[in-house]
Design brief:
single chain, mainly alpha, two-stranded parallel sheet, 5 strands, about 55% helix, about 5% strand, globular
Length: about 350
């Protein structure tokens, strides 16, 4: 008897394997991935090839963090029976599709992509941008289309990448004369990008302003103490600013009691609520959130063979799917074949 066809929407998401994941990843995507894995066919990509686009000088860093990120996925509640966890570099169809798609996009179009322009400026590449980094939108288009994903969770700043993917999809479908590839819709989280504890930039491993999912209780306490609040809020009785206050940004992201957060904001604005009390409230929330994740993560870290098995099984399933898409596209384009 044949298996029933899975008609659920296909969702593709993932992370560059440059370091363990942190609270920014959790609120931005991990939490929703756990919720979506029953309602969608979800593929979770360990993007080690993309990580090399600006880490080619340290491939060992990328290699060792494949396992670390996979452990983080399992620790937050990703179920490998529901979500396919796969390794990007072990899916050769993605590389072939990337090379194929490069013939359908111009360098000038890649340079105009707002996401790429911003990232090039942040990294100080100027004209020394690695070709792999410039072609990141093409590689992402290959990832998305290979799985025929119709939903891709991204931050607001990443939506131009989805737009460029759909441009490539439309051009190839026009070339073929029918819709082989699927256009994708960006799923933007309701919570914006989480700032670092210093309030000066987004939460980032490289900036040293992140709270890792594996953070110890002492690490969490120290990070909350460092958080920027309001430099003019010198005394408890002083009125304080909520806007730009990192502690309130985190409370908005992680406190489920919306009424309590609203009351604290009003109290802080009129004066009488001290930063120490405010931070203690946030610390209690973060300690409660991360304690079970940290415990599960420790268990998975002690079972690397199990985690490797999860990645092998998921990558095998993903390889079947991506190679089927590649074969279908090659045939539709009429490319040469020896078969």
């Amino acid at each position: 008897m044949s298996s029933p066809i899975d008609t659920r929407p296909v969702i593709l998401t993932g992370d560059r394997t440059t370091g363990p994941l942190h609270l920014g990843h959790y609120v931005g995507s991990l939490k929703s991935r756990v919720a979506l894995q029953r309602s969608h066919q979800q593929f979770l990509l360990l993007a080690d090839t993309q990580a090399l686009t600006d880490n080619a000088g340290d491939p060992e860093k990328v290699r060792r963090n494949v396992l670390e990120v996979a452990i983080d996925y399992l620790a937050v509640g990703i179920d490998p029976a529901l979500t396919t966890i796969c390794v990007q570099s072990a899916l050769p169809a993605l590389a072939e599709l990337t090379l194929l798609y490069m013939n359908f996009v111009t360098v000038s179009r890649l340079e105009r992509n707002p996401t790429i322009k911003t990232e090039i400026q942040l990294r100080g590449f100027e004209r020394d941008v690695p070709a792999g980094f410039l072609c990141y939108p093409v590689a992402q288009a290959a990832d998305i289309t290979a799985f025929k994903a119709s939903v891709v969770p991204v931050g607001e700043d990443q939506t131009p990448l989805i737009e460029q993917t759909n441009e490539i999809v439309r051009r190839l479908n026009r070339q073929i004369g029918r819709a082989i590839l699927v256009e994708a819709t960006a799923m933007v989280p309701s919570v914006g990008r989480l700032p670092g504890v210093d309030g000066k930039a987004k939460m980032s491993k490289s900036q040293g302003n992140a709270i890792a999912l594996s953070a110890s209780p002492d690490d969490i306490s120290a990070a909350v103490r460092r958080m920027y609040t309001d430099s003019d809020h010198l005394k408890v009785v002083d009125s304080g600013k909520v806007e730009g206050n990192v502690v309130f940004t985190y409370l908005d992201a992680f406190c489920d009691d919306r009424q309590l957060v609203g009351e604290m904001k009003a109290h802080y604005r009129r004066g009488g609520l001290g930063d120490v009390t405010l931070k203690r409230q946030l610390e209690d929330i973060l300690q409660a959130l991360l304690a079970p994740i940290r415990e599960r993560r420790a268990r998975y870290a002690e079972a690397p063979d199990y985690v490797m098995g999860v990645m092998r099984d998921g990558t095998r399933r993903a390889r079947e799917r991506t190679e089927a898409t590649l074969a279908e596209l090659r045939n539709a384009l009429g490319l040469f074949t020896l078969a």
